[in-house]
Amino acid sequence: MALLEINDLEISLAKAGILSPLVRGVSFELEEKETLAVVGESGCGKSLTSLAIMGLLGGSQVSMTGGSIRFDNRELITMLPDERRSLMGNQMAMIFQEPMTSLNPVYKIGDQIVESLRQHKDLSRSQARTQAVELLDLVRIPEPNRRIDNFPHQMSGGQRQRVMIAMALSCEPKLLIADEPTTALDVTIQAEILDLISTLQNELSMAIMFITHDMAVAAAISNNIIVMEKGHIVERGDINQVFTSPKHAHTQKLLESVRRLEKVKSDNGKIAKKPKKILRVNGFHKHFQIGGGLFSKKSWLKAVNGISFEICEGEVLGLVGESGCGKSTVGRALTHLEKATSGQALFDDQEIFPMSVSKFRPLRRDIQMIFQDPYASLNPRLKIEQILAEPLFIHELVSSQYDAKRLIQETLESVGLGREVMQRYPHEFSGGQRQRISIARVMILKPRLVIADEAVSALDVSVQSQVLKLIKKLQRDNNISMLFISHDLGVVRHLSDRVAVMYQGEIVEIGDTSQIFEAPTHEYTQKLLASIPVIKERDTL
Q1: Of the given ranges (147-156, 249-258, 269-278, 527-536), which has the lowest mean pLDDT?
Q2: What residues does 68 pair with on adjacent strands?
Q3: Exposed e or buried b for every residue in 60-89, given b needs 16+ CB within 10 A?
Q4: Residue 263 pLDDT more than 50?
Q5: Of 22-31, 189-198, 292-301, where does mean pLDDT reach its minimum?
Q6: First vs last Cα of the chain: how many Å apart?
Q7: Domain residue ranges in the chain
Q8: Mean pLDDT value across the chain
Q9: Torsion region of 418: left, alpha or beta (phi above 0 gives left; psi -120 to 50 gives alpha)
């Protein structure tokens, strides 16, 4: 008998008295000690399914409207609230994508783990604290006796995710649901978390339901897989069968979108002709002050420590490295969002670091930035036409509303959006559409240098593939130079002419894309490449 049995699950949205199904006819089983991957794009219903299992749908608008959920031969739907609550965190546990939204920022992590333990176990506070330290050690948090008294903000993203895993495992559950637990993590930390989950599964004999949109991650961790689209299961089977012989068109589409580490053909003839260097950075330092208050000694964090690089006209330079290595600080300094501590940056032979705000303002048209989160960078109160018109008038590129409207329509069409979107607000679009709008806002100014900071990291793999193709086309058609910042090496290889690798504030390796990926010389670069999950045949149960 299966540990988890889902039969004809239906989840609906109630709006104006009308029920709209979001998940329909979903049925599957999960055996003890099995790892099942559930993959699909955002909005396909995979997270809603997991929330229904955990009894966390919680709202009057979205609710379960049909089907059955049986756990350990017990029907969860008819279970009394107190009885079901006792299962959550005890025999069933969940890891969420973003630990900062799940951890209370005003409580120490140790106190939060202790609370979870005492809720489900008959332990004194001191006993729970001892067990909390053991859990932190189990998930490989260094110095657990000291870090137990840290607040969430004092830990890195990977460490916070380990804390969430520790809390989920505190009562040794039979079932662990992991909802996109590695999406926001760097490739090396992602590899560590996947290895940790697999190791702990073997030690604790858990069943795992692993939700992801990354097909390579699914291949790395699971035995069996379910593919969802628009609230339905469209394909299922063991990993090898589904990945080698996918039957459904949506599965084929997802697999085609995965950027594998294949040889890159250099077809940028402009680079071979030694074009003009549009950007030269020499000995750039950025230090942040830490402490220095009334009772604390001043110290400095060296975010960027003396890096140098160049970008030619029409060239894409990929900048890769883990979170905290300083790569985003480089982009922010080049756009005057951060002030350089020292060093030199020459854009078109103009030194930009010492420029005042007013002197740099004319260059903002030439140096543009695409941010990771388009929703945070688009004014929610303005319609799309207003958002795109604003920079046109600021930089005096048009003289009338008629000219602005015509240019906006042309630009939206170039990013695959019609003129009908002009009168809509940002919240009315999907993540991929919002990123297209952000790209349109940048490209409408016809910049010479674009800095893309994790521009596709928050997107589903198929949407990501579409946006990457768009960026590459616009970059080549307009001969734009680009600094492409990312922790995703597959994306960087797909887009870049050359790659610079950053580690602890320094560039440790730089060279042609093919050379970096096929013959890396630095130990850290080799580690990054070895950490990338790849789709390959694996043993199944």
Answers
A1: 269-278
A2: 7
A3: eebebbebebbbbeeebeebeeeebeebbb
A4: no
A5: 292-301
A6: 16
A7: 1-91+173-258, 101-170, 262-366+451-457+483-541
A8: 87
A9: beta
398 CB-near residues (< 8 Å, 6+ apart): 392, 404, 407
Inter-helix orientation angle 157-169/125-138, to 10°? 120
Contacts of 361 (CB under 8 A, 6+ apart): none
pLDDT tens, residue by residue, 426-476: 888 877 788 889 999 999 999 999 999 988 876 777 777 778 888 888 899
Q: Which of 441, 395, 376 is nearest to 415 (CA)?
A: 441
Query: CATH number of the domain at 1-91+173-258, please?
Result: 3.40.50.300
- Do 339 and 505 contact (CB within 8 A), yes or no? no
d(CA 533, CA 221): 9
Of 522, 458, 468, the closest CA to residue 490 belongs to 468
Instruction: Give the number of other CB atoms < 10 A from CB of residue 23.
Output: 25
DSSP state, 88?
Answer: B
Residue type at position 535: I
Q: Give the pLDDT of residue 122.
A: 87
- For the CA atoms of the chain, what is the radius of gyration? 25
pLDDT single digits (tens) 39-87: 998 778 998 999 999 988 866 688 999 999 999 999 999 998 888 888 8
Question: What type of residue sits at position 36?
Answer: L
- Cβ atoms within 10 Å of 535's Cβ, excluding its own: 17
- Per-residue pLDDT at 305 exceeds 90: yes
User: For residue 272, what pLDDT is reported?
Assistant: 46
Strands 207-212 and 35-39: parallel
Q: At what angle do helices 401-414 and 384-394 cross, to 10 degrees?
A: 120
Both structure tokens of 222: 């699971």
Domains 1-91+173-258 and 262-366+451-457+483-541 equal at CATH topology level: yes
**Which pLDDT score is estimated for 536?**
62
User: Which pair of tokens denotes residue 425?
Assistant: 């607000």
User: In terms of residues, how long is the chain?
Assistant: 541
In this structure, what token pair is assigned to residue 141? Answer: 């948090």
The CATH code that applies to domain 262-366+451-457+483-541 is: 3.40.50.300
Enter the pTM of the model. 0.74
Report whether pLDDT(266) > 50: no
The strands making up 342-347's β-sheet, listed across from edge to edge, are: 299-312, 277-290, 342-347, 350-351
